[in-house]
Amino acid sequence: MPILNFSYANIKDHDKFQQYVKAAAPLMEKAGVEVVARGSYSSTMKGKEENPHIAAVFRYPDLAAVERFYSSDQYKALIPLRDEACDMTINLYEE
After folding, report:
1. pTM of the predicted structure, to 2 decimals
2. What are the chain's domains?
3. What is the DSSP string of 12-74?
4. CB neighbours of 76 closer than 8 A, spacing ≥ 6?
5. pLDDT, tens digit (0-9, with 9 covering 90-100), for 48-92
């Protein structure tokens, strides 16, 4: 069953975030991750307003693919850069 990954990033350092994105993109491509959507926060229509952030939705073939990606040594090496660049929330949904 495909898994949708909804990621939300509150940016702390724009330059480091761009470095993170550039480094993560080829890993995602290699893992067969599909970029469904990306966008920058505009406004809140209903509910708690969040700080300005960037959101992205990615599709993985299944939960095992998600687990392989995030547990890979290549991605683990990017975690310190990611955490310096932003505060990220990652939510997974079955499609």
Report:
1. 0.89
2. 3-94 (3.30.70.100)
3. S-HHHHHHHHHHHHHHHHHTTPEEEEEEE----SSSPPPPS-EEEEEEESSHHHHHHHHHSHH
4. none
5. 877 779 999 999 999 999 999 999 999 999 999 999 999 999 999
